[in-house]
């Protein structure tokens, strides 16, 4: 391997490491809890609750100031002896159902829960309509009685015969 190839390979490795660096960085909580069960509850809650600022990150993964404050608030409430549902209700009262990754089904969230089913049904209806339009038409017949059809066939045959006679001449 020549010197320029080694240098370009080294830069490629450095570049790939720099790209992958954000994937391994994350939030590390070093706070102590009075018991292991509180720590486990804390981890579950911060995984289940969404950061109000980051939109699609949970509190455990977010580095925003509000998520840090909320993690501290959850830790304080756990140490005070509050239940998981009390902590969740407190955050929902403050930030709305948005902080829940699985919001309850109610009048304000019915579209969230029913929307995918409605879209699937609309897609199925659209497929049926398109298939029905593209279906070959059934042979409806000419609408003539047998006698009328026979007379039409005789006229067409006579026309074909007269055209054949004219072309021979």
Task: Characterise the protein shown here.
With 169 residues, the protein is mostly helical. The chain has 6 helices and no strands. Helix 2 runs antiparallel to helix 3. The radius of gyration is 37 Å and the shape is elongated. The relative contact order is 0.06.
Question: Which sheet architecture does the biggest sheet show?
Answer: none
Give the beta-strand count: 0
Contiguous helical run count: 6
**SSE string:** HHHHHH
Fraction of residues in helix: 55-70%
> What would the average pLDDT be, to the nearest integer?
81
Shape descriptor reads: elongated
Helical/strand content category: mainly alpha
In what range is the share of β-strand residues? under 5%
- What is the radius of gyration? 37 Å
Give the terminus-to-terminus CA distance.
90 Å
Low-confidence stretches: none
Provide a concise account of the structure shown:
The protein is mainly α.
Spell out the blueprint of helices and strands.
Elements: H1 3-24, H2 36-48, H3 65-79, H4 84-95, H5 110-134, H6 146-168
Core attributes:
6 helices, 169 residues, mainly alpha, elongated
């Amino acid at each position: 391997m020549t010197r320029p190839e080694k240098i370009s390979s080294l830069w490629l490795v450095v570049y790939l490491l720099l790209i992958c660096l954000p994937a391994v960085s994350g939030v590390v909580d070093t706070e102590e809890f009075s018991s292991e069960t509180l720590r486990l509850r804390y981890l579950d809650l911060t995984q289940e609750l969404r950061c109000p600022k980051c939109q699609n990150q949970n509190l455990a993964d977010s580095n925003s100031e509000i998520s840090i404050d909320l993690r501290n608030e959850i830790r304080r409430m756990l140490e005070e002896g509050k239940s998981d549902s009390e902590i969740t209700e407190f955050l929902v009262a403050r930030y709305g159902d948005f902080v829940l990754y699985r919001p309850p089904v109610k009048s304000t969230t019915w579209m969230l829960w029913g929307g995918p089913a409605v879209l699937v049904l609309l897609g199925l209806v659209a497929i049926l309509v398109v298939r029905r339009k593209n279906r070959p038409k059934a042979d409806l017949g000419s609408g003539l009685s047998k006698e009328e059809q026979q007379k039409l066939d005789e006229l067409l045959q006579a026309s074909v015969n007269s055209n054949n006679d004219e072309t021979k001449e």
